[in-house]
């Protein structure tokens, strides 16, 4: 979060086995190919909840350039989170109107063909933010590919 850290380390070989290790990495708790601190990754994920990945990378660490791909990788590394594990701040009042909007998107697959992930968002309405922009009130987003869903197979 505070900037880049550069350090030199020694690559040690075990005397009797063919194993190599960075002892300083083990002592500091740094995994192989790990380039970001856990605190930075958690801040990236927190920022990505409300903002686009590229902007959340800029907000999480102003002194570093963190790509949107790195933010996505941090989220994927976290893995799936069940709804009951997420702490949601509850408003004191139950909303009188709850909007549920659903759509699908067409995504080209790398192996060929096309897929249609489902996209759903639930919100309590919208407020105007500027001349032509709107902001959803308390939005919650859901999406993904589902078990009984078939790919269209078109190339």
Summarize the structure in words:
- The protein is built from four helices and nine strands.
- A three-stranded antiparallel sheet has the order 3-6-9, with no helix packed on it.
- Helix 2 packs across helix 3 (53-60), helix 2 crosses helix 4 and helix 3 (53-60) packs across helix 4 (68-78).
- The chain folds into two domains: 12-85, no CATH class; 90-155, no CATH class.
- A hairpin with a 5-residue loop joins strand 7 (126-128) and strand 8.
- 25% of the residues lie in helices and 20% in strands.
- The mean pLDDT is 80.
Concise overview:
Helices cover 25% and strands 20% of the residues. The protein is built from 4 helices and 9 strands.
List keywords for this structure.
20% strand, 9 strands, alpha+beta, three-stranded antiparallel β-sheet, single chain, 4 helices, 2 domains, 155 residues
Global Rg:
22 Å
Oligomer kind: single chain
Q: Spell the H/E element sequence.
A: EEHHHHEEEEEEE
How far apart are the first and last residues' alpha carbons, in Å? Answer: 44 Å
| Strand order of the biggest β-sheet | 3-6-9
* Proportion of beta-strand residues: 15-25%
Task: Output the structural class.
Answer: alpha+beta
Number of strands: 9
Which blocks of ≥5 consecutive residues have pLDDT under 50? none
């Amino acid at each position: 979060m505070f900037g880049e850290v550069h350090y030199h380390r020694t690559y040690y070989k075990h005397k009797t086995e063919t194993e190599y290790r960075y002892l300083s990495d083990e002592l500091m708790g740094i995994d192989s190919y790990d380039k970001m601190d856990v605190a930075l990754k958690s801040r990236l994920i927190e920022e990505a909840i409300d903002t686009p990945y590229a902007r959340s990378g800029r907000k999480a660490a102003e002194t570093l350039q963190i790509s949107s791909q790195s933010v996505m990788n941090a989220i994927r590394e976290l893995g799936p989170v069940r709804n009951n594990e997420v702490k949601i701040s509850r408003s004191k009042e139950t909303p009188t109107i709850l909007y549920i909007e659903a759509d699908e998107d067409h995504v080209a697959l790398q192996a060929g063909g096309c897929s249609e992930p489902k996209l759903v968002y639930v919100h309590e309405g919208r407020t105007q933010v500027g001349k032509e922009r709107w902001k959803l009130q308390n939005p919650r987003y859901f999406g993904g590919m589902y078990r009984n869903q078939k790919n269209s197979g078109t190339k």
